[in-house]
Every structure is written in C-alpha cells, then in structure tokens.
Known about the structure:
By secondary structure, the chain is mainly beta. The protein has three helices and 13 strands. It has a seven-stranded antiparallel sheet, with helices on one face. A hairpin with a 2-residue loop joins strand 1 and strand 2. It is flat, with a radius of gyration of 21 Å.
Amino acid sequence: MLLTPMRYKNYIWPHNPATYSISYERQVAVHKVPFGRYCMQDLGMSCRVIRGQGEFAGEDAYEEFKRLASAFYEDGPGLLIHPLWQISNAYFTALKLEQEPLPDYVRYSFEFRERFDGYGEELTEVSRNGAGSPVRRAETPEVRHTVASGDTLWGIARQYNVALEDLLAVNSGIKNPNFIRLGDQVVVPC
C-alpha cells in the first residue's frame, strides 16, 4: 500500500519515518491517607505524544535533515498530518540525531505533543458583576470550491492563498486532508 507522506507545517517528509508510536496518558494524583492507605484523583487525559524514528539516505541526506530541523525551529503549534493518524494540532517538541550524521545518511528520532483545543467555540464576556454574555465572532465571507479531478486540499489552499490550517478550521467535516472526494464542497474563508 502506497501512503502519502507525513507533513508538519510546511515540511513534507520525502518518505515516511520507519517507526511510530502514539502514547495516550491519563493524569492521576495519588494522595496518602493514614494507616497506609491512599486515594486517587483522576485529573483527566493529558496530551497525546507521537514519537518515531526515521532515516534520510542519499547524496542530500544531511540537507534534508536540516530542512526538518528548520521546521523544528518554527514557533508555535502546527498541523501534523499522517495518512493513518487523525490530524493533530501539535508542537514539535524534540528532534534528535541518533548517530553522527554522514553526508549521505542521517538517522534521527522525533517527538510531537498534541495541543489540546477543547475550548468552546463561543467566548464569554465577563463584566465586573460576574454576568456573562456570549460574544460571537463576526461572520466572514466564504467561497465554496467544488473538488475536481486532481484537486488536493493543499492545492486548493494554495489556489486561494489561504493557510491549510484555516481551510481545515472552517471544514470540520474533513478529518484527513489527504482524502477529499470528487464533487465535495470545500469552504474557503476569504
């Protein structure tokens, strides 16, 4: 099975990393009580951690690693897109050379931590007396693009000069940007 390459922000892997792991964790606080007992408090889910290892081989292997390192140095979270995982808005938290790099071979490992975006869509304005009222975002005009043969979400974003993150934000029904169907309607924010 041929998989589309993994992507993070503007970096596209020339081939997918060799290994991946995803960790799901739940935070639990343990409180000691008298007579050797304890109680536990569930603090909820923590972020997903995505780790992996890969290698670049060929005459420009070290140059490819430097391009990946440039993506690591960019501030803030970005979309991490893999053909088999769900899309995550993640921070690139670790990039490590696993051996001394050679001009034609580099082995590396990486780590991403998923950003939690679980806050509501509406913001509440709080006055001094504590009363709140919803503050709605201003309506923005939009264009609808009908997916034609050969279209990709990346190409549509580029065609309309819109960031892929913004395109995905207004098209919540698209779970994997690598799979859009002929005839689908894609909302393009203006």
